[in-house]
Structure formats: C-alpha cells, structure tokens
Amino acid sequence: MNPAQYCMTSVAPTVAAVLGLPALAQATGAPIPDILADLRGAPRLALLAPDALGLFSFQHFAADMPFLRARCQERMVILRAVLPSITPVNFCTMITGCALAGHGVSSREMTPRCPTLFDLLAQAGRVGAGCGRPGYTGAQLLARLAQLDGTAALPDDAATEEVVLRLARTARPDFIIAQIGGTDDHFHRFGPRSESARPKVCEMDQRLERMCAALTGLGYAVIILADHGQQETGDPGHPGSHGSEADEDCLVPCTWLG
Ligand SMILES: [Zn+2]
User: How many angstroms separate the alpha carbon of residue 53 from the centre of ligand 1?
Assistant: First the structure.
C-alpha cells in the first residue's frame, strides 16, 4: 500500500466539506477526496488526535496497535504537519486550514487572526466542542475557541475520553476536536520508539477503539490523526523531540470511520 500524502492544511477544508459548511476563505489546503467520498453528509464529526503519534512511531508499534493498524489498512492517507511541527501550530492549522503565516498561533494562549471552523459552525447555528487536558492545547486553545468547553476534569487521557464521550452523549455537538496528550508526554520522556513507551501506545489504541465505538454509535463520523510525530535525539536527558521539518517530526497517519 502506498497512501496518498496531503498537507495538514487539508484537514479543516475536509471537515468543512463533510459537514456542509462554507469554505474557509484563508485555507490553503483542499478537501481530501478519499475522506470526503466516505464521510460527506455525516451529521456529526469527531476529530481525535493522539498527540505525536507520527508515522514512524505508528509503524514501529504497529503490532501493539491492532485497532489503528486495521483501520489504516482499510483507509489511510498520510498528512504532513506544518512548520514548526509543534502542537499549537498544527492544531490551529486543523481548525483554520492555513499554516502559521496565516493563523499566527505559535503558542496555545494565542488567538488565530483568521476565522476557524468554530466560527463557521456558529454562523450556521451549529455547535463545536474543543477537548483536552487542562494546561494543554486541547483546553487552552481548542476549548477556549469552541462554543463548548471540553476541558477535562483531570490532566490525563482517561479524563479526556470521559469529557469527549459525555459531551457527545449530552450536548451532541456537530463537531468535536480532541487532543489526547499522553503519547507526546511519553515519547518526550522515553523516546518515540522506546520500550518504555509501549504500554502507553497500547493504552492509546484501546482508548481510540472505545471512543470510536461510542462515537459512531452516537452517529458521529470519526477522523483519527496526529498533530506531528517525534524523533529520537540520542540525548538521554531528552530522548524524544519534534519541531523540525524531518519526516519523523512531520509525517502522521490519518484514518477515518463512517
Ligand atoms: Zn511535544
């Protein structure tokens, strides 16, 4: 299999097209045809992002991720993160369709200088939710910009899963975007191909499987992608890092479920 490759700027135009929203004027990417063909017209869409689960870590840990591996064998594209390949820049790209020069958000406390998917939803009388751990981009950027604040009750992935599924069951927003932050923390601490990161990768696969089952049962289409990858530094003090234009930092797998 040789999956097609797109830029991270294609994600927001894809979400807008799936949900039948107008195009984002500043977007430099275009809707991804394979995703659009499967998901167009879905009433609701959730975008789940296991932080830093790049293509190289995914391939290294493929045997530990039976759910994500099977989904990617059915449907997959590869996305290239925008630069710098860091979390706030790429999550802002996921909701605006443009790179840093367009949205201007280089840290999670900043506000984009262009409209986001949440603005399109509001104009259409619809609702979006941003979810993630307190203190992380999911809460500090996405939840702050969304109509529904999905800040998790605790700074861990279980609490992020809880808030996503609770909002999906109760408020039923048209769009959910969630940063699931644990993989990035573990890859920084242990290295993106470390044995010590393996349990977290297994846990993430099981979490994604549970979340996808629940969300599709509630009528959501789901897109799974990472914001960036990570590379091994060789420095025992900081074994995993990202931010550069290297493929390890920038290439991420993306799959979807109708
Ligand atoms: Zn990181």
Answer: 10
pLDDT confidence of residue 1: 56
Is domain 5-257 in CATH 3.40.720.10, yes or no?
Answer: yes
Q: Where are the domains of the chain?
A: 5-257
Query: What is the DSSP secondary structure assignment for residue 15, as one 8-state letter?
Result: H
- Work out the mean pLDDT of the chain and round it to a whole number: 98
The residues with which 224 forms a beta bridge, in sequence order, are 48, 255
Cis peptide before 112 (omega within 30 of 0): no
Model confidence pLDDT, tens digit, residues 159-169: 999 999 999 99
Report pTM: 0.98
Tell how far the Cα of 2 is from the centroid of ligand 1, in angstroms. 27
C-alpha to C-alpha distance for 72 and 59, rounded to whole angstroms: 11
Q: How far is the CA of 220 from the centre of ligand 1 (A)?
A: 28
DSSP assigned state of 195: G
- Torsion, Cα of 72, 116, 142, 181 (10° steps): 30
pLDDT at 2 over 90: no
